[in-house]
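Box S2. Input/output pair 1.
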Amino acid sequence: MTPRGYGPSAAFCPRCASPLPASAPTTCVGCGYQLFVNARPTVGLIVLDPAPAPVGLSVPVGRVEPAGSAEPAGSSAPGEPFEQAGPRFLALRRAAEPMIGRWETPGGFCDGWEHPAEAAVREAREELGVEVILGDFVGMYVGSYEFQDEVLPVLDSFFLATLAAPEIVLDPTESTELTWFFLADPPPLAFATMDAAIRDAARRLCH
C-alpha cells in the first residue's frame, strides 16, 4: 500500500507534509499535528423479504426474484421436499472495487456527523431507489475497507429493515443485480462484517 493520506499507512503529515516519525498514532515533528487512526463509521442494512418463502417451496440460491413473491421462481412441484425456508435478505452484486462482483448488503459510510440510522436510510435511498423502514439494531462490527490505496479500519453498524415499496431501482454505479438469500444459508459476502451481521440476524430470526 502507498504511504499516504490519513490512514494507517500515512507517512507524511496531512497539515504540513513533513515526514512522520512513526506510524499513527504519532505527532508530527514539523508542526505538532497529532495523527490518530480512528475507525470510520459505516452502516449496513439487512433488508428482509416481506413474504418469506413458505415451507414446502424450493428456491435455488442466487436466483433473482422480486420482493414479496408468494411463490419464488424455481419453486419445487407440489409434494417435492423443500431445500430451505424462512426469512430471506436482499443482496446486491457489487459493481465496483473493492470486491467487485461479490454479493453484499446495502450500506456505506456515514457522512460527517450523520447518525448511523440516518445514514442507513440515506444509503438505501441511494442504492435501492426506495425508502426503507428500519427495524431492530443487529450489532456493531469492526472490519477493514480498502480505499485509495489504503486499508482503513471501519466500525459497521447493522440494522434490520423492510422495504416501504417493492419497486427497487438499482444505482448501476453501485450494483449490477439483486437477489434474495436465506438468512440461514447465505453465501460468503464481500466483507467480514456483513458475514458476521447475517449470522447474528439468523440466530435471532431463524428457528
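Box S3. Input/output pair 2.
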Amino acid sequence: MATSAHGRGDAGGTTTLVVSGKSPEDQQLLASAAFSLSLGERDSVEEIAVSLDAGAGAGAAFDAGAYMAALRVSRFGRWMLWSPRLTSTHDLVTRNFAKLPVGVVCVADVQFNGRGRSKNVWESPAGCLMFSFTSQMEDARKLPLMQYVACLAMTEAIKELCCAKGLPELEVKIKWPNDLYLKGLKVGGILCTSFYQPKVYNICTGIGLNVDNEKPTTCLNAALKELKANSPTLKREDILASFFNKFEVLFEIFSNEGFQALEEQYYNSWLHSGQKVVVQDGHEAQRSDSVVTIQGLTPAGYLYAIGEDGKSYELHPDGNRYPWLRLPHESNSTHLLRPSSSSSLLFPHRSRSAGGSTTRQDQPRAPMAEDDSVVSAQWLHEHLGQPDVKVLDASWYMPVENRDPWQEYQVAHIPAALFFDIDGIIDRTTDLPHMLPSGEAFAAAVSALDIKNHDKVVVYDGKGFFSAPRVWWMFRVYGHNKVWVLDGGLPQWRTSGFDLESGTPGDAILKTKAANSVVEMIYNGQLASATTFQTEFQPQLFWTLQKVKHNIAAKTHQVVDARSKGRFDGVAPEPREGVRSGHILGTKCVPFPEMFDDAPMLLPADEIRKKFEQAGLKL
C-alpha cells in the first residue's frame, strides 16, 4: 500500500519514505506518524509518498528485512524510515522530532542537502551509509559527549562485525572530535544537534560512513579488498544493525555511569594519545606557539594537554574546521588553534563528504557595521570574552508553551551571558504585556547588567530567532546601535559545537535581579544608583496606538503583521487568552518564520526582499 502526505523535498517531484519496524506494531506506530511529516520550506517537492512496501525502492534499495533481522535492541533503530533520495535525514528527524518515536532512524541512499557543522551542506551519492536517529537526555552536561559515544559505537560495531563474519579487521579510528578515519584518511563523520524542551534535551545524531566509494579518499570495502583480495564485502544493513546493537549498550552505560566508564574503550579507538601539537594563541601579529602533548579528554569533552613547561591546556574545536588537527604521520607536530578570546585565526578550505562529493560552505557573517542586524556564531565564538563584548540571553516563550526561560538559562547558556528578563524590564504603568520601559528605567536596567555605551551587545534566545529581536529593538530605540542578534540563536551555537555553561554564578543572579529591581524602583518614584548607560530616544523607531490608527486613513506608511496567516485572517485563535484574532485594516501579512531557514537563521537579504514584495509591499 502507498499513500502520500504534504511535504517538500527533491526539485518538484515526490520524496518516497518507506516505513519499517522491528515488529508489526512498531511499523504501524511509525506509519501513523509518517503521514504527517514535513521536509521544510526550503525544499521544493510536491508531496511525500509513504509506503509500507519494503520493495518500493529500486536498484540498490536498502534491505529493511535484513537490517531488522540483525537488530537486537529495545530502544534504538526499531523504527526506520528509508528513502532512495532525500534532502537530509538529519533535517527530517529534527523537524519532525515530536511526531516520531524516540529512537527512530532515517536512512537515505542518496542525500543531496545533508547537514554538516556550521551550515556545511553535504552532497552524498549512493554507496554511503547515511542515517540520522533520535534520543533524549536530561543532563545538559553530557550533551557535548554524545558525539563521542556515537563515534565509539561505530568503531566498535565495525570491529565486531568484521570479527563475526570472519573478515580482516578494519582499524577505523576516531579523529577528535567527530570524524572517523581509516588508514589515515577520512571515511566518515558524525553530527549531533540538540534542543531543549521542559525537563529533557532532544538529540538528533547524524552519521555518514563511506562503505563503497573508493574516491576521493577510501572506503570500508576497498580497504577490505586490500587486506584480502577475495574478501566478502560489508553491507550497509549489517553495519547499521551492528551500530545500534553496540550503541544501545554504550548509551546505557553512558547515561547511568557517565563517560568515564567508556574512556578506556574510547582511548583505544582514537588517534591522539601522546600526540604532540602546537598551540597557536593570539592574533597574527602577536601569536605565541607552545608545544604540548595530548593526554586525553577533560570532563567537559575537550582535549587535555600538557606543555613542555608543565602547564596544562584545554584545547577546543573552532566549531567547523579542523585542518590544524593533522594526523601524526603528516607531521612531527600538529598545528592546533586554541580559540581563546584573543584568537581570530580562520583556515578556509574545501571539505569533502564521506561519499566523496564536495560540500558547500556558507561564509559566516562577520558584521561590525552598525547597520547590520545579526552576527554569526563563529564571530561571537572568536570574540567571546573580550571586555567590550556583552552577551544577553533574552529567551522568552508564549505562556501556552509552559517553558521557563530563567530555568533554561541556568541549565545551559553561552559562557558569560547574562539573562535579560523581558517580563521584568517593562513599563510598569500598564497591564499590557511587554510595553517599552521609560528611557530612565531602561538605562538603569542595562547599567545593572554592566553594559556601557561603548560595549558591543549580542542578544540571543533559546528558539533561534524569536524574542531576541525584541531586545535588539529596545536597544536601538534608545540609541544604542552597537547591538546584534545572534543568527540562529542558542540552537545554532549548539550546532556549531561551541561551549555552554550550566549553573548560574552568583554575580549573574545578582545582576539579573538588580536589573528587575531597579526598574521597579524607578516606577515607584525611587532614585536608582548612578547609571553607566545613557539613552537617546529614537522616535522614528517607535509607534503609538494613535499613530497606527491615524495611518489607517492617511496611509503614509506600510504596516506589516508578522503573525501567522491563520491569526491574521482571524481563523486561528490567539495564544493569549482573551485576545481577538484578525488584523488591522490595510496591513500586509508576512509571517516572521518565513524570514528564516530551518536552522533557523536569517535568510539572505534578496530572499527577504522577495517575500515582502510577494506580500504586496513596496520596497
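Caption for Box S3: The chain has four domains: 15-269, 275-315, 374-524, 545-615. The chain has a mean pLDDT of 82.
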